[in-house]
Specification:
- The protein is an alpha/beta fold.
- About 30% of the residues lie in helices and about 30% in strands.
- It contains 5 helices and 14 strands.
- Strands 1, 2, 3, 4, 5 and 6 form a 6-stranded mixed β-sheet that branches.
- A hairpin with a 4-residue loop joins strand 2 and strand 3.
- Helix 1 (about 10-25) runs parallel beside helix 3 and helix 1 (about 10-25) runs antiparallel to helix 4.
- The chain is globular and about 55 Å long.
Amino acid sequence: MKISELFENVTWHELDAVEKFADELWHKLGIDIKFTHHFMDQLNNDRNSKPISADELIRIFKKEYESNGLAISKLDNVEAVMKDLLTLINIPFVMSRNKHGKELVAKTIMRKSNFKTSNPSYAVNETSRVKLSTDPEYFGATVNDANPLERIVSIPVNKIDVFEPDDKFDDPQNAKNLHNIRAALKKGAKLPPILVRRQGQRFQVLDGHHRFKAYRMAGLKEIPARIVSKSNVKEL
């Protein structure tokens, strides 16, 4: 099976996959991520001028977690807004409680440069492409997914190596996320492409280890990826 590119509009399957990626990050702060039906309706709204991609959704939830996660986790029964100053994406949300802890419900979304609100706003802006960290507390990559220049290509699975350690999947939450992603893949979800860099004649996963493992376990011979140039990778 060969997958060369993703659909322009984000589907429910893709949004479900994005939600699982966001949950993987935010569960460390005791927060569940949810998207409303209205969010989906506005995600593919023509008023956004340029379609909002799954990559951009992943970017804003990653950047907000890194920059404003702790501050957002302290909110309780409050409406607020996530803002990505680079992509001009705005996500009004409600932070509430459920029986498992806190729940961040993304109500709607829009791409707008002058979005105004009286609610608390949490803005992010990062122009670097990929930052790699070997910190035990955060072993992985921080990625700027906004307006990526790399085209999507199909790469043979047997030519791809991983950056993060395999024991990452020993964690119960990571194992659960992998299971959910595999389930979404079986239902036909078009997952965002992984990010890789060249390592001689092979490639190394920078971002998308869960997706890579899910594709490999599904028996696919090739998977969609973006190849990031060496100059755009910074190791911390």
